[in-house]
Amino acid sequence: MLKKSIFCVLVAALAASVNAESKPGDVCSIDGAIAQVGGQVMSCSGGKLAVAGHGDKQIKLELHLMKGDKDIVSMSVLTVDGQPVPIGRWAELPYVAKAEEANGKVERTYGTVKDGFSVSLIPTLMSDGGLLFDLVAEKSEVSFQDLGHGDLKVQLPAVRTMSLSQKVVLKNGQLAVVPFGPVGEGAAGLQYSLQMLARLDGI
């Protein structure tokens, strides 16, 4: 089945729009995005670049979305204390919503349904050097049921959505595995999990 993928990682988007000559006050277009310019971490706020952070540490975060032991999506992002990290990967899946025969021809009407995941993280650097993450994640799975026969067959989409809202505490360099979604459901009966590895580095 054809699908149009939409991949949005704001960190990467801003990084592509700045260069070594960029400086605080320069115009940017993606509020909330972060990039490292020389020795500084900058964020886009109100349409302008600003030095990000509330401390002297930047946070490198590795994320893996797993289904069972299969790594579905891997990503690495850069953020700072208190800076939200929005990540999403979605696909618009087309399906046959209506099929009618007229004048010896079959006319089909197509619909689309969204499939994918989103993650939102807000890190807080604690006084003991640990990291507290406010984590919100959502994952959808789409399946189709065929109805009718032959050229007049249509598809009925069913969407299963799993969500997670949790606080996660990590030490520097510690790996956390956060499971979500019902066990025993889905095509293979496997549970999703989000693997997180955070590292602190001085700016």
What key phrases describe this protein's structure?
203 residues; mainly beta; five-stranded antiparallel sheet; 12 strands; 4% helix; disordered N terminus
Question: What layout of secondary structure does this protein have?
Answer:
Blueprint: E1 4-9, H1 10-17, E2 34-37, E3 40-45, E4 48-51, E5 57-67, E6 70-80, E7 85-102, E8 105-125, E9 131-147, E10 154-170, E11 175-180, E12 192-202
Can you walk me through this structure?
The protein is mainly β and 203 residues long. It has one domain. Helices cover 4% and strands 65% of the residues. The strands form three sheets. Strands 1-7-8-9-10 form a five-stranded antiparallel β-sheet. A four-stranded antiparallel β-sheet has the order 6-5-12-11, with no helix packed on it. The N and C termini lie far apart (45 Å).
Query: What is the terminal separation in angstroms?
Result: 45 Å
Helix-strand topology string: EHEEEEEEEEEEE
- Tertiary shape: elongated
Q: Can you tell me the residue ranges where pLDDT is under 50 for at least 5 consecutive residues?
A: 1-16
User: Strand order of the main beta sheet, please?
Assistant: 1-7-8-9-10
Rounded to an integer, what's the Rg over CA atoms?
21 Å
Strand percentage lies at over 45%
Helix content: under 10%
Specify the biggest β-sheet: 5 strands, antiparallel
Summed up, the helix count is 1
Structural category is mainly beta
Number of strands: 12
- Mean pLDDT across every amino acid position: 76
What is the count of structural domains? 1
